[in-house]
Amino acid sequence: MLGHVFKDIKGNLYPSVGLKKAGEHIRVNFGQSPFTYDINNMMAKEKLHVRKEIARTSTSSLAHNMKETDMIQALVLQFLQHDGYVESARAFAQEIQSEKMALNLDPNAVIGDINVKDDEHATTRQHIRRAVLEGDIDKALKHTDACYRDVLKDNEQVHFRLRCRKFIEMVRSAAELRTAAEGKKSNGHAASNFSHQEMDLDANGAENGTYDHDMDDGAGKTGMLERLELETLQYGQALQAAYVNDPRREVTKALGDIYALLAYTNPLKEKEVAHLLDKKGRVAVAEELNSAILLSLGKSSRSALEEVYAQTSVLLDDLRENGGAGAFVSLQDVVDDIPKPRDS
Question: pTM score > 0.85 for this model?
Fold first, then answer.
């Protein structure tokens, strides 16, 4: 490699070849065929060189009087506390403390305590988050209204996402009940015990948390399924009526997507819509609600670790525009290099 000849060139450059005589021709390869030159190996070496340069960079200017390891541990600890993982934060703090004591070679040195304060709001947020992740949207709504009265009113989009998720969970429960019923039917007998998915129905027929599938006979299971499907349809109609005049495209699209679930007898088995029922969808809703609650408390909606990640992503995007070493750095590459836990 000759190195960089020019930097900060304005405008776009395109490869071009000038031919001296008429009838001359050349053959070029812009990547559509394997290169004769081992460009992949060259890029790997350049990436490694850049990574080593980054590793040699001191972090002392980022946090005075704090070593790199201490700074990373502080970021992780703050992330756990910020997201409401109080017990995990406390366990992590104890692990840090034990590690410092084990590595301390000076018997006279004082190892400071790392205190994780009891935070009532963090505990409440953790309960709300867990409810969403378990698919119990009514429980999450109930606790949010009780503890943070204005959050849903001031964050209408978050409230809308929660209501849509509730509809999805109702469809999912009905689909799982149907799948279980079909499985027992194929075995030639009816089961006395269904898997427990608790879902209580209030006087209005609205889903409230969980549903108990214990049934003694096939007729009872059929009645349970029909009742749940009716409740789901009624809730969907109420949701549609609430947003029938909403002009936002994202609202119309979201409603259209979830209503498509009703077109299938068992949407869990239909690849076109099964992704809507994926439990991973609960995570995004839980994060949005948690962020809204944090903002209502006057706190940042993102932890310091998330801020660092976001700022680094933007910085790398800017560096890539000018080429050079920045083009060889990717946060995803760093994440991919993290050792994966072994399956037990």
Answer: no
